[in-house]
Fold this sequence. Notes:
Structural class: alpha+beta
Helix content: 25-40%
Strand content: 25-35%
Number of helices: 8
Radius of gyration: 35 Å
Amino acid sequence: xxxxxxxxxxxxxxxxxxxxxxxxxxxxxxxxxxxxxxxxxxxxxxxxxxxxxxxxxxxxxxxxxxxxxxxxxxxxxxxxxxxxxxxxxxxxxxxxxxxxxxxxxxxxxxxxxxxxxxxxxxxxxxxxxxxxxxxxxxxxxxxxxxxxxxxxxxxxxxxxxxxxxxxxxxxxxxxxxxxxxxxxxxxxxxxxxxxxxxxxxxxxxxxxxxxxxxxxxxxxxxxxxxxxxxxxxxxxxxxxxxxxxxxxxxxxxxxxxxxxxxxxxxxxxxxxxxxx
Length: 276
């Protein structure tokens, strides 16, 4: 009995496997090549305006995508934090170790009005102060200003050898460190609570508080290089445009009027009894 076996060549099997699997290899893909658009064509520049307590008001520019649909550009700008060197803001190169953080509070036209947000020291300045054979004294305090801001201030100081000291080290005892820290906290809290944030920032920029702490703490242990290392704004009051504009009104250009001349004394005629 003869058996018949169906035989398919390998090429025929491969053709059967490929049936129904046309992946549009011959036709060109739709939307494969999009035109490369420069992303900066959709952006616009806004000017940063620093508060009037600083010497330089025009402190830089920032970029953002243009208003498109419900995404408004000014909403994206509000809340941005800008870190600047105090040397650039005050045109004084000796203050380059101090960094100032300013926050965008309001946008008027193409101007971003900035407000104080924090203060810091550069790393290289802090590292240059830290040395061997001395004690570091650090303190921090939270205080509320009269206009409702809650501010946290950090202070740093270092012990120094007394005059004509022979000993190589100048370490302070733990009781002395606590006493110095208590004085730091007291002076910083007094400074923070006595006025508004604007007056506090002015004091911090001019930096007389470090010398004041050094003078007060010298009775406990002589210290040197006392600085307000860092300032953080923890809580802000509800946004008020008039309060913000007070930061941006130029105090030097305010109209204070002219000085009044002193009143001239009238001379009475002799024998007239004070009457003419």
